[in-house]
Amino acid sequence: MAPRFFALYDTVEFPHRWQLDDPVDSEGREMDDWLFKSGTPVSGVGPFHISIDQAGRPLDFSETHLGVPIVHVRVASLFTELAAHDVQFIPAGIEGYSDQYLILVATRRIACIDEKASRIRLWTHEDGVPHKVGQYKSVRSLRVDPSKVGGARVFRLAGWEGVLVVSEELKGALEGIGATGTRFEEV
After folding, report:
1. How far apart are the two ends of the chain, measured CA to CA in Å?
2. Are 120 and 113 in contact (CB under 8 A)?
3. Can you give the pLDDT at residue 144?
4. Which residue, of 89, 141, 143, 155, has the fewest CB within 10 Å?
5. Measured on CA atoms in the order 35, 37, 40, 42, is the torsion positive or negative?
């Protein structure tokens, strides 16, 4: 049986939840969100500070306005236990909270979108953006080809990096500890 994978999203519908601003460095500079979402390791940055845009219940897994994943230390421990070679964590203090939170960086980017099973559109010359011709313009009904994933348990999709993907084992472990803020969609 082929392994199953899931896109991991922030549950924005979670009642009375907090909303986090994007991370800033010690000098108050906002970092490019793709630094954390490109599927490659990050070096020479951090720690970061995150302000609360809307007060509410803290979550174990949240995404900032620009989709940067923020996790509580207990979730980070689980990722480290099950996928140590696929993740990196950068300290991120959250305004008004003494609990430890971290930015989750998936350090692997894998070309594994199943283009036949997914509904994809590519950029064309007619779109008027020459440097994007041949790249994914949209991906719907996303499916990954498990045969191309190898042993990765956490990764970003090459060409469609905005999606954070986790293995079924990691999904089950997150559900097992009752991690708040997680939403999964099979890919």
Report:
1. 15
2. yes
3. 97
4. 141
5. positive
Confidence of residue 157 (pLDDT cuts 50, 70, 90): very high
Burial of 37 (0-12, 13-18, 19+ CB in 10 A): buried
Strand partners, 54: 19
φ/ψ bin of 85: left (φ > 0), alpha (ψ from -120 to 50), beta (otherwise): alpha
Residues 8 and 168: their CA atoms lie apart, in Å, by 11
AA identity, residue 168? E
E-assigned strand segments in 51-114: 52-54, 61-63, 69-72, 87-94, 101-106, 109-110
CA distance 92 to 89: 9
Rounded to 5°, the CA angle 169-173-179 comes to 140
Q: What is the mean pLDDT of the chain?
A: 95
pLDDT at residue 105 tops 90: yes
* CA 148 and chain centroid, separation: 19
Q: What is the pLDDT of residues 21-70, one digit of tens each?
A: 999 998 899 888 889 999 999 998 889 999 999 999 999 999 999 999 99
